[in-house]
Specification:
The protein is about 40% helix and about 25% strand. It is α/β, with parallel strands linked by helices. It starts with a strand and ends with a helix.
Length: about 300
């Protein structure tokens, strides 16, 4: 049975898993007369979103808000748009063309997760252009008396946004402030994914989001994380720099992929007593390697 919990004023969440990923998906629902879903995840989660809405007595959606268009955040947006034809799908302008025509998104998803990715994630369906709401940095979307401020948050991806709920001073941060891991999801590691990860921009985004003086961070993987947002952002910044430095040094030393992987695994085990999955290691190392090559550092 789906466990739907209220985590702030009329903000509900449920966590769920899929066999294709080790990390959990966290979906948020805002229960107002105009319903909102934030981080809908892949299409395979749509039936669970419908179940959660039924539990909460939510009959319709006004807004579908993924923080970015990667399959684990927005893959289900097209399916939800079909089910709720009056809903607007909120997207960074850089992501609009890929949501309307997801052919490149489908191809990149195949590259990462294999030809049969639909078996686990569900299909990536196009969103009708009439249902797209391209948003500007700082724009405020009003939902009844609630103000949801859009903040451009590039670094993990150029089309990444964060959503700041002014009523509870909470940031739906996607992967802009790292990914929670380790015991109790209290360790924030960088969310690195090739080919668009940019560490410099990522760190700038963290400082930009810090200035919102949030009270709570709503993560897409790992649930609601803490009420000491400033401390958590600092940890995310530190770990981003440290892991990046370890990988850069290993690559400059002429290390093989196996050597770089070993150094990261040893650091994570020693510093955080955690074991990183093969997929996490591959994405992190691959993302940093592409970034350092672009910067001419290796």
């Amino acid at each position: 049975m789906l466990d739907v919990k209220e985590v702030a004023d009329r903000i509900y969440r449920f966590e769920t898993g899929l066999s294709v990923m080790t990390s959990l998906f966290t979906v948020y629902l805002i229960k107002e007369s105009q319903g909102v879903v934030i981080e809908p995840g892949p299409a395979a989660l749509v039936p669970r979103i419908q179940e959660a809405m039924k539990k909460l007595g939510m009959k319709d959606l006004a807004y579908i808000m993924p923080t970015h268009i990667h399959v684990d955040h927005a893959g289900g947006a097209g399916k939800l748009a079909q089910l709720f034809p009056t809903a607007k799908v909120v997207v960074h302008p850089a992501g609009v063309k890929h949501v309307v025509n997801p052919s490149r998104l489908i191809e990149s998803t195949r590259t990462v997760f294999g030809e049969d990715f639909e078996a686990g994630f569900g299909p990536i369906l196009p969103v009708p252009e009439s249902q797209i709401k391209a948003v500007e940095d700082g724009e405020i979307i009003r939902v009844d008396g609630r103000e949801l401020q859009i903040i451009y948050a590039p670094g993990h991806a150029p089309h990444h946004i964060a959503i700041f709920d002014r009523s509870v001073k909470g940031i739906f941060c996607g992967e802009a402030l790292g990914i929670p891991g380790g015991e109790g999801n209290r360790v924030l590691l960088p969310a690195v994914a090739p080919p668009s990860f940019d560490q410099e921009t990522y760190l700038e985004t963290m400082e930009k989001l810090r200035k919102l003086n949030a009270r709570i961070l709503f993560y897409a993987h790992g649930g609601v994380v803490g009420h000491d947002a400033d401390k958590l952002i600092t940890q995310a910044e530190e770990n981003t720099r440290i892991l990046g430095d370890i990988i850069l040094q290993a690559l400059r030393d002429g290390g093989t992929t196996e050597d770089v992987t070993r150094r990261i695994k040893e650091y994570a085990a020693r510093r955080f007593a955690m074991t990183l999955t093969d997929m996490d290691l591959a994405l992190t190392i691959g993302g940093y390697e592409v970034y350092y090559k672009k910067k001419g550092l290796i």
